[in-house]
Amino acid sequence: MENWIQELYEKTTRKIEAEFERMGEKIPYITEGGRYQTDYGEKDIYWWTNGFWCGILWKMYHATGEEKYRKRAEAVERRLDKALYGFTGLHHDTGFMWLHSAVANYRLTGNQEARAKGLLAASILAGRYNPAGKFIRAWNPECVEEGEDCTGWIIVDSMMNIPLLYWASSELNDPRFYYIAKFHADTVMKTLVRPDGSSGHIACLDPDTGELLEIRGGQGYGADSCWSRGLSWILYGFALSYRYTKDQAYLDTAKRAAHYFISQCAVTGYVPPCDFRQPENPPYTDASAGLCAACGLLELSGHVKGREGEIFREQAGLLVRSIAGHCGCWDLDKDSIIQGCKVDYHGGDKQTDLIYADYFLLEAQMRMMGNDFLIW
Q: How many angstroms separate the CA atoms of 189 and 175, rounded?
């Protein structure tokens, strides 16, 4: 193992330890004035990122064996019960919320109550499946602009949520969940992934037939652009779908996305822009996209033999090392590690930090060190 990975891991875990001591049971998202001021457990318990801090805590528990991380993760998980049983505010992101909390808990501790919550979350996600169009619907009416009808919308983010369905299928020995995930992945592959490996964000489908009506730019620059975090969802998501299905088309799709992502980052110093086809100014970056992609490349490297697999692993290391060097905040008195992120291209926020960037930073390092457990 290269020295820089170990050194970076030690810096990362020191920072997480400092945050842990002042966090309490708060659910963080972004900082304000260098601290996690807003508790998303209070502001919006349905918010899609609410599982990532829990995921960090379970990673730390797995790595250290320290009970304080387990107890805190379980406390945060209990707070998420309000969203799980509240139900109406949930949409396609139940994987992000409960793979990192209840399912991680069950995988590491065997907790049966956590298992039940994970299965309930999977059932909620499966309930969004449209069998006529063969897709999992994204969002609810309150999530889009007034007057918009999102009944037939799908988004690339969904590819990182459907591992919850693969897990439930295996856990229950029930192929229903497996085929919902697989049919949805097929629809995403057909509608949102381009031949060159780039991707769109939103596909608007006829909810009665599944016919593609329109591609929308969503959180990217435009309909024909390539939102970098969306492409990282595609890269990692299809690599994970290959893990669970062994469908060669999924591996080929993940590889195309990987090669496109790598080629674009090679000319930006391995800190990706918010959108690979955005104008030169403003020069928005999204470090979270690079770290998610790094995890996807590491996943791919385990499925691809020979020099190509080695390249994927090397490129993951370049992304992690460059982003940590250019975007890392190592001040122990400040919350959040990775700066230089962007929620979406056209959003009013400028560059910020995002809790999931820190999660993917930790996951990538633990993967490279051989000290990870699969949370997806």
A: 21
